[in-house]
Design goal:
The structure is a single chain. By secondary structure, the chain is α+β, with helices and mostly antiparallel strands. Helices cover about 15% and strands about 20% of the residues. The chain contains 3 helices and 12 strands; from the N terminus they run αββββββββββββαα.
Length: about 325
Amino acid sequence: QSTWGYFPHAAMPKANIGALFVLLALAQTAFGHAVFTCPVPRSTDAGEKTYPCGYNYFNSWNTSTTAIVQPGPLTVTWSETISHTGAPFRVALSIGGDCRYEEFILADHIPHNSAGATPRTYYFTVNIPNVNCMATPCAIQLLQIMTDKLQGTTCNTLGNVANPSCFSVYHSCANLRINGTVDPAAFTYTYVPPAGLANPTPNVWTKPESGTWTAGGWLQGQPTTVYQQPAACTPAPPIVNPSFPASCADCNYPTTCGITRASAPTTTAGLPGGASTTSATTGTTGGVGASPSASKAGPKVGQMQAGAFALAILSGVFFIALIVALVVFVKRPTA
């Protein structure tokens, strides 16, 4: 017999204990899919579906951890908490804010690993370009495109922005300070596929895209040397008051990208198209000096906040119901 707050060891069968742990594990992963584990991501939520970096993580510079890395090979790792057969990945870099992930693709069409159980750890080495991001905000982005959900066999997307036919995409971003020598304003880039990858059409995804991975989490054809870890996994101080494009509209993103964080404009040096910029001294929406496009985003932002609040309530109700079910389960009388 068991009582509230006290479960005698003899009263809980081993089968019940095992089921309890299984249910708790399912509760923890039910809303997750893929997230960086190194470098340290802005959000540890594996279910971020808002381009480019997840809901409320657009232009998250002062409030997120940062890693200092060197130009050259960098091994990144991520965790897939729910498996989607044939759903590929992409790793990209943005320089000078969150606007430019489509310009600096580091690894395109990384095939999915459909073997083994989840959570599943991936190791992949990308080449960090020789650009100086010690004072310029830069970040690395992971996408996972849910091609297994497609009605047809292909979808097209520019990071789930230009064409929503890839309607389900997961995002994870990590801030980087790159100790390179080339000024961002003078930097040019040409994509070269990393070892083990082909060079298919960018942003055109097919169903399925799977590959052969080792039991240790490496794609067949990639060297298994780990580069710049654990240094790249160690949080470092962020850039103080960086300048970056102020709003989703300044990036030519729809207002459904992350929440706008506009404040006083500073400089347009080194930024694409002379976009307006903001200083990260505040985290307010539509603050002093906000661009008109940032102000127009207000109603949509409010809808997004309301949606997130509703989702949080539903998640809470689900969790409470699960706890009640578990308590009833473990309190069952035993033979």
